[in-house]
Amino acid sequence: MNPLPEALRASIGLRVDQIDTPALVIDLDAMERNITRMADFARKHQVLWRPHAKAHKCAELALWLQRAGATGACVQKTAEAETLAAGGVHDITITNEVIAPPKLLRLARLAARLQAQGGRLTLAVDSADGIHRLAEAMAQAAPQARIGVLVEIDVGQGRCGVPPGEPALALAHTVARQARLHFAGLHAYQGRAQHLHSAAERRDAIAAVVQAARHTRDLIAASGLAVPLVTGSGTGTLVHEAASGVFGELQAGSFLFMDADYARNEREPAQPTFEHALFIKTQVISRQGDRAVCDAGHKSHAIDAGMPQVALLPPERALRYSSGGDEHGILTAAGRKALLPAIGRMLWLIPGHCDPTVNLHDYMIGVRGGLEHGMVERIFRVDARGALT
Hints:
There is one protein chain. The chain has 2 domains: 6-24 and 274-381, Beta Barrel (Lyase, Ornithine Decarboxylase, Chain A, domain 1), CATH 2.40.37; 28-257, TIM Barrel. 31% of the residues lie in helices and 22% in strands. It has helices at residues 6-11, 28-45, 59-67, 78-86, 101-116, 128-141, 166-176, 199-222, 238-243, 260-263, 354-358; strands at 23-27, 48-49, 73-75, 91-94, 120-125, 147-152, 181-188, 230-232, 249-250, 278-288, 291-294, 309-310, 319-323, 329-333, 346-350, 363-368, 375-381. The two termini are 20 Å apart.
């Protein structure tokens, strides 16, 4: 790993008001409370948890989560898996299909390295072609190693995944016939359900997921092939998968930071209370008429799930953030007693979607003691930033 830039290294020990802007900042106290609540929840429901690292893309945070009880990490990309493995994460699941032969050869070599370190690599598949390509890559690049394979079923996402039932049964047996592949179970993730804001809608959506996963699991088990695990879930629905008796592992990752979009969900009473822990620090650089302008534009936060929210303001003094382009944000009064911030004022934004926001930054600044009076304690490298292959 390359050393931290001098300016960042020198920022450790600074007060939060001295952090340069725009910057991606983690409230470490809030993040740790989120981790504790997630670990307690999983322990109570006797399920494994494997947080999705696409939320933070950081090996140090993945290891932090494992020390708190997480089984390992999920990723979406081959390059993400390689990057986390290089950072010391040795139990990795790729919750995505990998088809290209060069990538499969990389995965085969990575599986062998992790196996030699006492770890493991697992990959999702949804086609016989994908299974045979993976088996060929393992035979060519890692003939002494084995790789775990999850059959992905489409439980309503409408993206990847074979239909539940008989098609999944056929794929499971295709996996089991390959000498270097190990059938690791079923991957059943309903991403659309995570952001249904109504609790009743999420409950109904996951009821259908559980039914499809249970039927497929039982069908495969009745054929004589053991199903070691059903894995899936996300921050928006983890209450339902954990209580299902079908899912043995939760892949929720956004609980770590809790972005603005997840905060719009109607909360389930049984769900842990997760706090916002990821913020963009920004500064007002202009004030003209009925607007103020800050220095955090779209290059510092993702907008696919909406604009960021201005944090730490009472409702009557709320400010509205709107698009000002790549480098600017427009701030206008939203609350009945709102006052436009003065030039030089520091503000905190809650990103609409944490995952792609993190991917825009090289580093995250960890603050201890809160966003008003805290100090910079550590710097986290976004190791897998841009790891898209």
